[in-house]
TrEMBL record, chain A:
It comes from Shewanella atlantica. InterPro entries: DUF3325. The keyword Transmembrane applies. Keywords: Membrane, Transmembrane, Transmembrane helix. The chain crosses the membrane at residues 12-32, 44-61, 67-88, 95-112. The keyword Membrane applies. This is DUF3325 domain-containing protein. It comes from the Bacteria.
Automatic annotation (TrEMBL), chain C:
Keywords: Membrane, Transmembrane, Transmembrane helix. The chain crosses the membrane at residues 23-47, 53-73, 80-98. This is DUF3649 domain-containing protein. It comes from the Bacteria. It comes from Shewanella atlantica.
Length: 113, 547, 99
């Protein structure tokens, strides 16, 4: 089950990353927070999102090898992206909460896997 | 073609999509379902839902080989080949199978499989005839009711259209990053477009990969010209160079006794170590040219190659050459093939593949629904004035209903036929398949007469109930029901029931959503008719002017 | 025999004919481009025969897609036919020359 907890953890991190990338955009930030982001906030969210994505990919190939890990990661981010879009569409105001939750849950899974 | 490259690509994207989308939907649907090919095959054989499950164990190999050889010598002396299939993760049982000698004019004989009971003595021999998951697997490239070659050309043609649709789609999606997360709900055509964009873009690497690798699996048939020029058309020589270990030896006709298979185990272990053995195939049985091939379980390695260790059946000496490290071209080809079949995927990754395949179906379905909605909006004025919708619109709406709503229902029909048709019925495997296509035809007939949302709700509602009832169907027609399977950790069987139930719920929600839209639209229509009646004199006056 | 009162010139230049012509060009002439391209590639790649054939066959579909997009991007359908047939002919001449 070790690989399953890592996969779940990476799913959580990808959700966090994509959520961050979404919030970096004007309209989605407004949807979640009811105010516009400052350019600095936008930039921070943007690079944070990419950063988490990169780290998740690295962890993925560390645990599953380059070939299998890359394939798994591609599938994972498709699902994570879909979940972020559904959140933005149906529960936009909860996106930051879900992101925080997935960050915590992902870290816990990674540590105790 | 149009004024700008962009407009031409938009036009191209619509038409390459629209012309073949229903065939592609069938292909994508069947392909996605066949990710769970072995699990479905297991579910369709209730006779082996209990007392046969075991894990692969190295200690048992010698015993299992001896038993297998004895059993096969007794029951299948004149067979074309024997197989001993060891338990794997996806087929957790031991079985002995063989192929009978092909009848005159046929290339293949009949495949018979007997599964070992866990008590070590009995064999389960009377398993009902069903194609199971293999039906969906074959459906997605061999279609049905036609020779395989024609089907593969049709599917290849449609796949080229799909590839063009993907490339043109990428080119025309200018706001691909800006609109990455956009999904505007309840906005009619706009929402369908967003759904189409999301299902395409989110799984874009998958879509490109699956389409291109699909073409590559049959490239020897579609584009053999490299072989024509470099090998002067000698396909055999090409195949021999490509896979040097794969030479097929014909039976010599001179009988010679077969050695004990278990004697070869030490040599196999020396080469492969602890890698599990998946299958042992014995060909040209009791002949001088008999061959014993050991196939390993490649597990999670991203490869599609099945490089066997081949021994002579008479002397036991190794006849297969050691495989050298594959060249870059071979490795690339192998990786691409394995990406398409995803044989290496363990349950979690397999589920991701399934989700991406489902998104591919969603991409096609939303594309064609988007077109239908848009064109209906365009023709709304004429339709209100009493004209019939155009032939194109009626055709598309009808095909949409037939395939998008019909395919899930047809799949259900296949599963119900599998459990409800008499087990001893002649040709029952084919009749299960006939029920699949019969339901599609019936949906088409319904679509011919009524393409309204009411029909959609009826078909979706029926599929929803049918899918939700699959666990009940399983309970009534198998020795093990869902909770027993969960308790004994048979997750393939339990997962089938659970996933069917969840799909049923999803279809029910889809039906509810349509009901809401219908009420909204009919309320709007009622309101506007009331308004129209009020202002009738005004509108007639204006139409008189406008005419 | 009385010919129908059609303006043949306008018919040839009409949109449906244009589309059909380009479609055939993309499908058939495009296939020729892909076939000759992959055939030539199989001969000229400096690797052992089986490997260059593999590479050529795997790449052939990209040529096909490129040719099809070309057929729908150029100005007229005649140009589409001309370009694709010309490219196939040149590639075929090269094949004859190399083999």
């Amino acid at each position: 089950m070790i690989s399953n907890s890592i996969t779940l953890s990476l799913l959580n991190f990808s959700y966090l990353a994509f959520g961050s990338l979404a919030l970096a955009m004007f309209s989605h930030f407004r949807g979640a927070f009811n105010r516009s982001p400052s350019p600095a906030q936008s930039k921070l969210l943007y690079w944070f999102g990419w950063g988490v994505l990169a780290v998740s990919y690295y962890i993925g190939i560390l645990y599953q090898g380059f070939a299998y890990g890359s394939i798994l990661f591609t599938g994972l981010i498709s699902l994570a992206g879909l979940l972020v879009i559904l959140t933005l569409s149906y529960r936009a105001h909860h996106l930051p909460h879900f992101m925080a939750g997935s960050g915590v849950f992902g870290t816990l899974l990674l540590i105790f896997a | 073609m149009k004024e700008t490259f962009f407009r031409s690509m938009t036009w191209l994207h619509t038409w390459v999509g629209l012309l073949v989308c229903w065939v592609l939907l069938l292909v994508f649907f069947a392909g996605t379902v066949s990710y769970y090919r072995y699990e479905i095959s297991l579910w369709t054989k209730p006779e082996i839902h209990s007392d046969v499950f075991q894990n692969y164990q190295t200690e048992n190999l010698t015993h299992q080989l001896r038993e297998g050889q004895a059993y096969l010598s007794q029951h299948a002396e004149n067979a074309k080949d024997w197989r001993i299939n060891f338990p794997t993760e996806r087929k957790p049982y031991l079985s002995y199978s063989w192929q009978t000698q092909p009848e005159a004019g046929k290339r293949r004989g009949q495949f018979i499989e007997h599964i070992a009971h866990v008590n070590g003595q009995d064999m389960v021999t009377d398993v009902r005839n069903s194609r199971g998951g293999n039906f969906f697997y074959r459906l997605h490239f061999d279609l049905h009711y036609m020779p395989a070659k024609i089907a593969r050309w049709i599917v290849g043609f449609c796949t080229m259209f799909m590839l063009l649709a993907l490339i043109s789609g990428i080119v025309i999606h200018k706001r691909i990053f800006k609109d990455f997360f956009s999904f505007r709900r309840n906005k009619g055509g706009r929402s369908w477009l967003d759904a189409h964009n999301i299902s395409s873009v989110l799984a874009l690497p998958y879509h490109l990969m699956i389409t291109y690798t699909g073409l590559i699996t049959l490239m020897l048939m579609y584009m053999p010209w490299g072989v024509m020029t470099a090998y002067d058309g000698d396909t055999r020589a090409f195949r021999a160079e490509l896979k040097p270990g794969r030479e097929q030896v014909a039976a010599s006709g001179t009988p010679a006794p077969l050695i004990q298979l278990s004697e070869l185990l030490p040599t196999v272990k020396a080469s492969w170590g602890d890698t599990p053995i998946k299958q042992v195939v014995i060909s040209n049985i009791n002949d001088e040219n008999s061959r014993i091939s050991f196939y390993k379980n490649t597990g999670q390695s991203v490869t599609d190659l099945r490089i066997p260790l081949i021994f002579s059946g008479v002397s036991g000496e190794l006849v297969s050459k050691a495989s050298s490290a594959p060249s870059a071209a071979n490795a690339t080809h192998d990786t691409l093939m394995s990406l398409h079949t995803a044989r290496f995927a363990e349950p979690v990754l397999r589920f991701f593949f399934f989700i991406c395949g489902f998104m591919g179906c969603a991409m096609i379905a939303t594309g064609t629904l988007l077109w239908a909605v848009k064109i209906r909006q365009k023709q709304q004025k004429l339709i209100k004035q009493g004209n019939k919708p155009s032939l194109g619109l009626r055709l598309v709406e009808g095909l949409n209903l037939t395939f998008i709503a019909g395919l899930p229902l047809a799949t259900c029909a296949f599963f119900y036929a599998n459990r409800l048709l008499p087990t001893q019925m002649a040709d029952r495997a084919q009749w299960e398949i006939h029920s699949f296509f019969a339901v599609i035809c019936l949906t088409a007939v319904l679509a011919f007469f009524d393409r309204s949302l009411t029909s959609w709700r009826r078909v979706l509602g029926l599929s929803a109930v049918a899918f939700m009832a699959i666990p009940l169907l399983n309970w009534g027609t198998s020795s093990q029901h869902l909770f027993q399977n969960m308790a004994s950790q048979q997750w393939a069987l339990a997962g089938f029931d659970i996933l069917s139930f969840l799909i049923g719920i999803a279809l029910w929600f889809a039906r509810k959503k349509l009901a809401q839209t219908h009420t909204k639209t009919s309320n709007r229509v009622a309101a506007s008719t009331a308004w129209a009646k009020k202002g009738k004199r005004v509108s007639t006056a204006s139409t008189k002017e406008g005419a | 025999m009385v010919l129908p009162n059609l303006n043949w010139r306008a018919f040839i230049r009409s949109q449906p004919i244009n589309i059909m012509s380009r479609s055939f060009a993309a499908i058939f002439a495009g296939y020729l481009v892909a076939a000759t391209g992959s055939g030539l590639l199989a001969l000229i790649i400096p690797l052992p025969a089986s490997q260059s054939v593999l590479i050529a066959m795997m790449l052939s579909f990209s040529f096909y897609v490129a040719a099809a997009i070309w057929a729908f991007s150029v100005g007229t359908s005649r140009q589409a036919w001309r370009d694709l047939l010309l490219i196939s002919a040149i590639l075929y001449i090269f094949i004859l020359w190399v083999s």
